């Protein structure tokens, strides 16, 4: 317990939180969530948040074991992850679609809300990339903090839309896209050196 407490680092939590917040992009997903609700599909906010926590934390721990089966180390995955994050940032900044959201849409809570909107390929890749940089405890705290925001947005999506408006959501998406782009470059630079050595 003492080791866990001593591992807690506010800077790491804040940094991991911002990265995950930008990748999950729940503010940018507001139009999608509203469209789902307009199609009379129900979204269980609590269930979606809990499922996302389970998926993200499970992958944080077993993702490395899965990689080891293929002989891939975390640094290599972090470099690959930085490229995925880079592409996500390009999508957000320039408004282009690279990753197609083509999953089945029968259950709105599980698909597409939990996967791929919240715990999608970008989030999972980012988690292992972050693990190469930060302590696991700090990443878990960042995940939980993000899921609180996800829950609030899913629960009060109509209010969120009124507060930010279309313009506000647009600005948030661009702002976090630029932050994500800078993080992708940093992640690539810090891990490529160890691979080259």
Give an overview of the whole structure.
- This protein has helices spanning about 1-5, 10-25, 30-40, 45-70, 75-95, 110-120, 120-130, 135-155, 155-195.
- By secondary structure, it is mainly α.
- Helix 4 runs antiparallel to helix 8 (about 135-155).
- The longest helix has about 40 residues, at about 155-195.
- The protein starts with a helix and ends with a helix.
- The model has no long low-confidence stretch (mean pLDDT about 85).
> How large is the share of residues in beta strands?
under 5%
Which radius of gyration do the C-alpha atoms yield? 17 Å
Biggest sheet statistics: none
Question: What's the rounded overall pLDDT mean?
Answer: 85
Fraction of residues in helix: over 70%
Which structural class do the helices and strands define?
Answer: mainly alpha
Give me the strand/helix succession. Answer: HHHHHHHHH
Approximate shape? globular
Termini separation comes to 36 Å
Number of strands: 0
How many individual helices? 9
Low-confidence spans? none
Number of domains: 1
Primary descriptors:
80% helix; 197 residues; mainly alpha
Would you summarize the structure shown here?
With 197 residues, the protein is mainly alpha-helical.
């Amino acid at each position: 317990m003492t080791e866990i407490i001593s591992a807690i680092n506010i800077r790491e939590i804040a940094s991991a939180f911002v990265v995950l917040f930008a990748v999950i992009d729940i503010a940018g997903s507001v139009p999608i969530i509203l469209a789902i609700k307009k199609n009379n599909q129900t979204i269980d906010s609590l269930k979606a948040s809990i499922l996302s926590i389970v998926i993200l934390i499970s992958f944080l721990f077993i993702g490395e074991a899965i990689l080891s089966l293929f002989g891939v180390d975390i640094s290599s995955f972090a470099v690959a992850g930085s490229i995925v994050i880079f592409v996500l940032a390009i999508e957000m900044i320039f408004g282009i679609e690279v990753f197609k959201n083509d999953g089945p849409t029968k259950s709105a809570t599980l698909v597409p809300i939990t996967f791929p909107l919240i715990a999608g390929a970008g989030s999972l890749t980012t988690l292992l990339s972050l693990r190469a940089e930060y302590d696991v405890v700090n990443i878990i705290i960042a995940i939980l903090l993000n899921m609180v925001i996800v829950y609030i947005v899913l629960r009060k999506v109509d209010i969120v839309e009124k507060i930010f408006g279309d313009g506000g959501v647009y600005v948030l998406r661009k702002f976090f896209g630029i932050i994500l782009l800078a993080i992708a470059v940093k992640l690539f630079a810090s891990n490529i050196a160890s691979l080259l050595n």
